[in-house]
Amino acid sequence: MLHSADETEIKLFQVVNKTGARIKVRVSVDGKALFARRMEAPAADPSGVVHPDGGSSATLTLKVPIKKAARRLTVRESLLLKKAKTISIAGGPTKGGAGFQIVITKDGIAVTQDYYPSY
To answer: In what order do the strands lie in the sheet with 83-88?
Structure first.
């Protein structure tokens, strides 16, 4: 389906910091900045409970307008990992209401397209 170059839709972005450290995330679409946010290190669990994944995570959820004709999404972390990941988001409609989940760990960046939050 062809889209007007200016036609946009609101997408949910969930950014999860599982690094245990402070990070800075920049997200761009087709080379143009979409948003940039600093995320603090996840808060320690005051109960002393040991989590199976090695710790808790800090989560940021945003709703951001994105052009329907967008082709590439780039996620860059610039404080800890100093890495970037680019995925293709072109090639057809995504599920209505779906968005992106970005998970940043000490090992890298994972991006899931057509993500639905579980709340």
So the answer is: 32-39, 23-29, 72-77, 83-88
